[in-house]
Model the fold of this input.
Amino acid sequence: MKLLVCLKQVPAKDAPLKLNSAGSWIVEDVSYEVSEPDAYALEEALRQKEAHGGEVTVITVGPQRAAQVLREALAKGADKAIHVEGDGTQLLDSFATAEAITRAIPGQHFDLILTGLQSDDSGAAQVGVILAELMGIPHATIIMQIEPVPGGVRVKRELEGGAFQYLEMPTPAVLTIQSGINKLRYATLMGIKQAKSKPLSKINAETDGISVELNRLVIERLYVPGAQKKTERITGTAKDAAARIASVLKAQGIGAGE
Amino acid sequence: MLKFRDVDFLQVGSLLSPDELLVRDSTRQWAEQNLTPIIETCAREGRFPLELVPEMGRMSFFGATLRDFGCAGMSNVEYGLVMQELERVDSGIRSFVSVQSALVMFPISTFGSEEQKQRWLPPLSTGEVIGCFGLTESDFGSNPGGMRTTARHVGDEVVLNGEKMWITSGSISQLAVIWAKDEEGSIRGYLVETDRPGFRAEDVHGKYSLRASVTSGLVLQDVRIPAGNELPEARGLRSALQCLSQARYGIGWGVLGAAMQCYDTALQYAGFRKQFGDKPIAAHQLVQQKLVWMITEISKAQLLALHVGRLKDQGKADFSHISMLKRNNVAIALETARLARDILGANGIADEYPVFRHMANLESVNTYEGTHDIHTLIIGEKITGLGAFY
Ligand SMILES: Cc1cc2nc3c(=O)[nH]c(=O)nc-3n(C[C@H](O)[C@H](O)[C@H](O)COP(=O)(O)OP(=O)(O)OC[C@H]3O[C@@H](n4cnc5c(N)ncnc54)[C@H](O)[C@@H]3O)c2cc1C
Done:
């Protein structure tokens, strides 16, 4: 099975974020890591390769620093890496990112393309879905399990309220992977050494025609939500107070539909 | 427990290559997920987490700078970063890896026969075999050259007699590298399987320091080993000291981890602890002075470690450079731990914070692998040409 895993480099989870003076982006003096759901997508791809054979390619769209997520993936066991590199590529929206990935892999066949279910930073959950559309292949989201069957795969999807959906679909296909579905491995020192000799190809985003011009989403303004303190003192008899608490909770949608 | 934030005031990280950063971050992640959750209990119970040894082997932590026999072939800087991240959690865990790598695998790889390497290095690299290094005796610490342990050749066997003291991992080892004097009074290294008749290891109890590491006394009473267990290329005390140089280099990096952890804990604590009104204690000049001393010394120590590491990678590091690294970095780490403990007030003596444990651990690190003062004498002899040991 040939697998492609799309990885995004995002600010580390506990990074203290500051906005730039224009309020259009963050100040990029933080440490970065691979977006968590993408790490699970990579782990799943490596497990599929180990169980059924094949090859894992990883791809990222991002500035120079983003190559670190590819090096880490190669150290964990991916075979090849592609870096669509360019200043400002961190500002691409989901559509432009999916477009960049499509343009980076012309003529290459992958049985499965895995992405994380959504990114830890913008959380749009769109790249995988748009990628499938651009490539004209089926997709399924929030995948928890993948099992190869003749001509395709059988997958387990997470639905709401603890329900699951099992479906069979043909390959090639795009699957967006849920976090926490497997146990992540570490990049071992031996893996890091072996990764030094694995191919990491760079594609210049600009020569591929990739820029923020392709964006269909405009960021108007980033801001830190102001803290609001609203306290209501509920007084009166226990019965009246209970009724008041119930109506406040209902108004906020808590407990509705139960 | 407060979440560790990287300590890098001078952007020393910008001097590291992407692969070096990957080594640091991957080891950090492993240590935070596997060691941090259990280390306080281990230290309290005086228990080394033996269950993590296979996992450390899978991470290729053992003999990481060696090139063959399943070892990762890391650079000295990469190895240093591994030590830093392990000791950020606990000096005892770093000690274990130091001994296995620098004091057991290194001498076998440097002084051993091809057969000895084939036999021992692969299982040592996975952690299936644990090793220890027996140089110190109760009466000979800083001056190991005076040792009394003897090796006598009888037919094609060697018979060892003597007692070693303060031996890290002694009672959990399957293999001991024992230094002993032969018939000519020359110090040689011997590979001793610890299940041989006449070999006994007894743990030192009542330690206030390195509680998550095993420290033992070894008794060798007419222990017979094949002559083929002698390390053929190890000649004289010089060879043993060559191993120590390797281990001291790792310590110079390791203690940085302990210092960074103590500093970061003190900095965070001083930011939320309030006394005398609504100001955090970090807003007072006396507290700032302590924090500034710590971060200045840590930053200098980071540069020292990196520089000596780069020299070592170019084959240009002298033993006296490594003495300066060990002496300086342990001293500032210990002082950082003491100041951090002070800043934490009463909380500084409890094991809810890692500071007291680090402080107590660093007292051992100050003593072993050449005490602070012995390194003063080594550097002193180097620059003046005059030995001041006797
Ligand atoms: C936890 C722990 C683990 C250890 N693990 C190992 C191990 O795995 N293998 C091993 O072989 N050893 C090990 N050691 C032993 C360690 O290397 C020795 O403790 C160390 O070399 C110091 O020796 P000593 O304790 O006998 O102190 P001493 O040599 O008695 O020194 C005591 C004091 O006298 C000072 N001093 C000594 N000579 C001079 C001098 N000429 N001039 C000025 N001052 C001097 C010292 O600096 C020190 O302050 C370990 C020790 C500890 C505490």
